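Hi everyone, sorry if this is the wrong subforum. Our group has a chain we'd like a structural model of before ordering constructs, and none of us has done structure prediction before. Sequence below.
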Amino acid sequence: MSRGRNSFSLEARKINMQSYKEALELPALNLVGKCRREDTGKEPICPSEEDEISSPKEAQVKEKRRKNTSKTIPDHLLPKVAIVGRPNVGKSALFNRLVGGKKAIVVDEPGVTRDRLYGRSFWGNYEFMVVDTGGVLTISKSQTDLMEELAISTTIGMEGIPLATREAAVARMPTMIEKQATVAVEESSVIIFLVDGQAGLNAADVEIADWLRKHYSDKCIILAVNKCESPRKGVSQASEFWSLGFEPLPISALSGTGTGELLDLVCSGLKKVEGPENLEEENYVPAIAIVGRPNVGKSSILNALVGEDRTIVSPVSGTTRDAIDTEFTGPDGQKFRLIDTAGIRKKAAVASSGSIPEALSVNQAFRAIRRSDVVALVIEAMACITEQDCKIAERIEREGKGCLIVVNKWDTIPNKNQQTTVFYEEDVRRKVRALSWAPIVYSTAIAGHSVEKIIVSAAVVEKERSRRLTTAILNQVVREAVAFKAPPRTRGGKRGRVYYSTQAAIRPPTFVFFVNDAKLFPETYRRYMEKQLRTSAGFAGTPIRLLWRSRRKMEKSDGKGPSTKMQENFTGTEKSLAVPA
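Answer:
Right subforum, don't worry. Here is the predicted structure as tokens:
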């Protein structure tokens, strides 16, 4: 009877192992939602009979760890796939579907996406970069129609700009968006021409198809008919687009229908890229987020750093919508990831405007701060520090990010002399107390003056943010600080005592102080200790976290009495002292 039971459990275990084997291949299908593909082209990863896998979730975690430890091909070596089409056909929704996340802003409004947006994607054994672009417009439309179709405003956030300058900037906006889309098409190996199946064939679709056929016939062009959620109606909706000269493929970026077949066609037009033989495992690449109020020159700084028109620069408020990630290599060979963000206005101003894209852009800017390592807070030289700048600075300090203050448009300050910089820095330090430790860089991005200093300062800030102090040096600094100024006594005559301190973490540097009672150290003394740490040990450009741990709490958490705890500490000290001897 036991043999039969054992054989039955062995068969059940084999069935479970087969289901786990299928579960290991699920992450590749997550990129296309509900789409399924029978042959993924991947070698099956089968656990051995000795491995005990408790659940498919654990198997997915192990697979994810294996992928993370493997060598990856850099983004600039991967083939690119561009998504083009007229406005409001679902390009950003398809981009999010392919890259597996909400990286692009998706709103049911035309003209939301303006700059090129890159995202990494894979399908089977192929890995590639997907490029989201703004809507390609046609030259046959009038300027008024273009403004209405792109929903460009000449009033929101542009009160201080002359009307003639506003109109000229709006007139150039469609050309700038099309230029960004053209760059994406030229650098891509495969082009996904996206149309709207619900709206039907449009004159703009015909002109875009002729443009692609005339100039890019040597590339793989795939006609995808979006918004075909129903499989039955999808074929009839797509049949209308045969007149464009391409074979239409009905898909739905919202539900994922047909995206599996789309990715098959994409991979058939790509050449498989093998990584270089000397490719090493990718090291830590710090991210620098460029944030600030609208029209302070954030996009100009990014373009000046990378040496190309990576993003659209315009006096139109809210030109940048998405958070644009760009790889950059410094003069010393160090790699950075630059993140250009949308201008952050006051919460009340965003709410009163009623603009959903602007609200989403501000949220993306805050997320960019959260996922960055160093934040470059850009302010306008003539405006100096405003209330909104102070709120952004408090947000940066609260997130624990390294920071440097970039005073842009420094050439607009009249009658500068040697004392101008000193007085200006004093004014900034007095108004932005949350970032009193941040270095200040003066630049003129539109002329390219002193822009390289931003990267140099950011690299220094990142090194300070990742620096560790030895326990011996740290305790020496603390002892000198306590000897110079002892903790104040309470009314009952009690005084705080610092036993020892240690650095618990980096990014940001975090120090733990073991004391007799944390309540005996007021906020003023904690700020004094932070100031002494900065004076003696540096840490310029990064916030410092000080944690105060009471001895009583340690004893209660361990469930031991004071005598036992002191005895264990004394024994541990004897052991540590006996090791060097």
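For your construct planning: The longest strand covers residues 498-505. The mean pLDDT is 82.
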